[in-house]
Amino acid sequence: MTTYTAAQVMTATPVVPVIVVDNVEQAVNLGKALVAGGVPVLEVTLRTDAALEAITALRKEVPDAIVGAGTVCSRAQYIQAVEAGSQFIISPGLTPDLLAVGKEYDIPYLPAVATISDILLGLEYGYDHFKFFPAEVNGGVKALKAFSGPMPHIRFCPTGGINEKNYKDYLALESVLCVGGSWIVPTDLVQAGNWDEITELAKSVQQ
Ligand SMILES: O=C(O)C(=O)C[C@H](O)[C@H](O)COP(=O)(O)O
What range does the record give for the signal peptide (predicted)? Predict the structure, then answer.
């Protein structure tokens, strides 16, 4: 099994799709559609009962994807996500327990920060790659520029409120390796099984 670094996951695609899946078949079809469109990194959120099974199935059925778990909010969820086969883990925030469990496994963990104090806490545990969430309501591009004053070496995946109109503003920052978002996996297209259109959306995102 290939183990990536956080930087490798974050530079494998300019956009990490934040995925919500209802069942395994839908997840596999969605994963194939995204990979076909040049977006290999898949963040499967643990918001549905199907999520863990979907991660396991994606690892098996879509070998070109880099499959991770999102919305990981506790140590127990972290371990379940690793056991399901996740190649990276993302949280919407951070806690001392999450930062500690992330160091117990080899795969990359992106805790989310919203403030300099969050970044300082993450640094204490040895993290320097973070999700920035929710990006737009926490100051967006301006906040990231301000963070980079005292913290020029920190790298981010901003997520939350990012879309086709503003993602390039984020990617233009040196501190931003990728952005996260749901806009390339719209619920209506996923529910309708409109995989070709999702492939086209994936193709439309550029560095
Ligand atoms: O569940 C998580 O762990 C999250 O981080 C939330 C997601 O990242 C946002 O729901 C995506 O934000 P939008 O692209 O604005 O829809």
Answer: none
- In the chain, the number of structural domains is 1
**Do the Cβ atoms of 31 and 67 come closer than 8 Å?**
yes
Cα 30 from chain centroid?
16
Asked if residue 1 is part of any domain, the answer here is no
Nearest residue CA, atom 16 of ligand 1?
182
Q: Residue 39: which CATH number?
A: 3.20.20.70
pLDDT for res 1: 57
What pLDDT does 207 receive? 60
User: Could you tell me the two tokens for 7?
Assistant: 């930087």
Low-confidence ranges of the chain (pLDDT < 50): none
Nearest-atom index, ligand 1, CA of 91 = 3
The token pair at 127 is 């993290």
For the entire predicted model, the pTM comes to 0.96
Give the ligand 1 atom nearest the CA of 112.
Answer: 5
The set of catalytic residues is 43, 131
Domain for residue 201, yes or no?
no
Q: Report which DSSP code applies to 138.
A: G
Q: Give nearest CA residue, ligand 1 atom 3.
A: 71
Q: How far away, in angstroms, is 70 Cα from ligand 1 center?
A: 9
Is 128 a domain residue?
yes
Closest residue CA from atom 10 of ligand 1: 160
**Structural domain of 93:** 6-183
